[in-house]
């Protein structure tokens, strides 16, 4: 089944537009998890990997009922080398076994022949030994469009062939996203609008039965006005919306990322959910706190959608 | 010592502006290497990693005398998961032990707090267990500027703190690099010129004793006219020049990437050197062929520089 259709099925099942970001930071992992890892594996990168995996499993168990999709951020794993990448892979596998979809947030990008290697690795089938097949379990990947179409097409081809999805950076949530993305062209359009038009082209052939394309876009919650413009350009493209919570975006801010049908966006929160246990208003048990925070976020978004008469489930 | 100074010292020592791209592709690795790996490790990703590492060691031994720096392309390793990343790490370590500098070609990019995790991982010191330090051996990293300044500054900070370098994508070598990079702004400048101006700003504080900054730029050999413009904007920034050989760039095409002092660019070739053994005009021994190809490229560039009176070593 087309990735966008799979995503929407899962969103309906959980009645939730939330994506939980799995961005483990060693200094925020509960001490008992770390102590156990050090005891078994010493002060090694392997112990970091085991800590991350145990922490993530707890989060996934806590949030699985209330989220359709999770988004591990590769940077937090990759900085610990191959053991970190092993933790990433094991986290993806555990999320899939828990019935969740996965976005590998890696923002990969390169020229065509190299982009194909990334596409094969995350979404397709890398060249491997005769008679053997190598499959990455993640459902989708974030990509960066600086290199233009021939750097993106290999990912689109993999999506088409293997029912996977991508989210292309269009307007990101960070303070200086405008340095490049907001530049105005001679034709009086913003760079993010130009990229949005390309996303529409790349996604045209991958529109699923429910009208959305598997070629999506990253549109930050922190820029609601730009989101409105982008929603109009990319009518059929799913948005991945970062910037909720810790970065300052609210439930009301993200509503313009949705279409009138009540679909079209998954809203990510990372720190605000996985490290909720460090905030006074939640439980000090990290799993219980994550569950409280994800339910709160799910309901806040659904309530904001209902106010605008955009809630899909009545 | 500042990264740019270290790079220039190594370039002088080898009298070579060549960078060798270590982009292993399983179907182009000599059969005897692969047979041995399968025999010892089965048809696994571990066997792929062992094949890549043995192949790379042979290439590094063959080219070390004639190149200052090597550039493993992360995509080709990462597609094989954590074993692939292990091969990447072991390749970097072997190159360093062989007296070479290393560019990790990973084109990483993200919002500030996440970019910091990538910067710590590739160039700095990731948060780790108390009393232990984690160090990545690579000297520099390629980065993608779509997210603007706050996505790049963490890398610049790591370069400053740890004498490392970055190369920011400015004008890439691929056919559709113009989709975004060539768009013309209202102020009548191209996007690649706008990014170039940012690169100058980011690099200002990191200029070494010989006048070049550790904050470099990626400028493709396939666009000589754009390279001339960019050389004028980024006077003090080192260029990493891809696109030589297999992608169509010639020695004459890359000359405008150099300053009049005969420095300012390292020119990369990957396939054209590491898989030279598959071309009739070179040896069918892959190491000997790589050596022939790297010497040929070094001399071609030096000859072209000499013709323009830009050769640093007379």
Automatic annotation (TrEMBL), chains A, B:
Mind telling me which Pfam families this protein's record contains?
OMPdecase
Catalytic residues, chain numbering: 107
SMART domains per UniProt = OMPdecase (SM00934)
**E.C. code:** 4.1.1.23
GO biological-process terms attached to the record: 'de novo' pyrimidine nucleobase biosynthetic process; 'de novo' UMP biosynthetic process
Question: Looking at the record's lineage, which domain of life comes first?
Answer: Bacteria
- Give the UniProt family note: Belongs to the OMP decarboxylase family. Type 2 subfamily.
Q: Read off the HAMAP family from this record.
A: OMPdecase_type2 (MF_01215)
GO MF term set = orotidine-5'-phosphate decarboxylase activity
Name the keywords, alphabetized: Decarboxylase, Lyase, Pyrimidine biosynthesis
Q: What is this protein called?
A: Orotidine 5'-phosphate decarboxylase
The Orotidine 5'-phosphate decarboxylase domain sits at 17-286
According to UniProt, this protein's pathway is: Pyrimidine metabolism; UMP biosynthesis via de novo pathway; UMP from orotate: step 2/2
Q: Which PROSITE patterns match?
A: OMPDECASE (PS00156)
Alphabetical list of InterPro entries matching this protein: Aldolase_TIM, OMPdecase_AS, OMPdecase_type-2, OMPdeCOase_dom, RibuloseP-bd_barrel
Spell out the reaction equation it catalyses.
Answer: orotidine 5'-phosphate + H(+) = UMP + CO2
């Amino acid at each position: 089944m087309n990735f966008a259709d799979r995503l929407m099925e899962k969103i309906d099942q959980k009645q939730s537009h939330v994506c939980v970001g799995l961005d483990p930071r060693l200094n925020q992992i509960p001490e008992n998890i770390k102590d156990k890892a050090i005891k078994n594996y010493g002060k090694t990168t392997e112990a970091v990997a085991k800590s991350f995996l145990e922490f993530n499993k707890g989060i996934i168990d806590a949030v699985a009922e209330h989220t359709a999709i999770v988004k591990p951020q590769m940077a937090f794993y990759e900085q610990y080398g191959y053991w970190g990448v092993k933790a990433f892979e094991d986290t993806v596998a555990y999320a899939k076994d828990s019935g969740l979809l996965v976005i590998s947030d890696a923002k990969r990008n390169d020229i065509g022949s190299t982009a194909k290697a990334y596409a094969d690795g995350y979404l397709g089938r890398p060249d491997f030994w005769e008679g053997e097949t190598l499959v990455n379990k993640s459902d989708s990947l974030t990509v960066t469009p600086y290199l233009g179409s021939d750097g993106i097409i290999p990912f689109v081809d993999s999506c088409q062939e293997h029912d996977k999805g991508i989210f292309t950076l269009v307007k990101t949530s960070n303070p200086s996203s405008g340095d490049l993305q907001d530049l105005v062209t001679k034709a009086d359009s913003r760079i993010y609008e130009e990229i949005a038009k390309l996303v529409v082209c790349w996604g045209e052939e991958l529109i699923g039965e429910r009208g959305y394309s598997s070629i999506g876009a990253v549109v930050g919650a922190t820029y609601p006005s730009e989101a409105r413009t982008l929603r109009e350009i990319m009518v059929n493209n799913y948005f991945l919306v970062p910037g909720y919570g810790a970065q300052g975006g609210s439930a009301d801010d993200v509503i313009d990322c949705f279409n009138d049908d009540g679909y079209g966006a998954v809203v990510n929160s990372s720190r605000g959910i996985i490290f909720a246990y460090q905030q006074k208003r939640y439980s000090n048990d990290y799993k219980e706190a994550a569950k409280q925070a994800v339910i709160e976020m799910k309901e806040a978004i659904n309530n904001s959608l209902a106010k605008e008469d955009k809630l899909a489930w009545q």
